[in-house]
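Sanity check record (used in CI):
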Amino acid sequence: MTCAIVLIMLTACNGSEDVGEVREDISLLEKDLETISITEMKTFNESVPDSTVVIDDQEDVETMQSIIGEGQNSRQPSISDVIDPDYEIEFGKLNYYVWLSESGGSFQDQRDNDHIYPLYKVESQEMLEIVEEALNE
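Expected output for YhfM-like domain-containing protein:
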């Protein structure tokens, strides 16, 4: 009986990544970034011409980095028919599609279109404020 329980536990622990599990290879919390780039998007494959801005304000960089980095803890399966993103945000070599509104948002690592990460209303509003300020300068 004990062997069966141990076997079940080993099998359960040996599975693929669970929803919500942190992927260490994409953690932004450990990176010292000086700038991030934000581009307004028309579609997944097309950006709005001349819309790329670079944010170098350290407080804004750290806020965006923290929201995206900590948001990686809430990974969920992606819906197959996702609407076009509002923005693409580049953190060094890591790029994310981002959907933002006053009521909430989400982001997706471009290397992993099988998952999406939801954002709380407050996080989405904070990111939206930073993005809109940068795009309107």
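The chain has three helices and seven strands. If this sentence no longer matches the regenerated tokens, the check is flagged for review.
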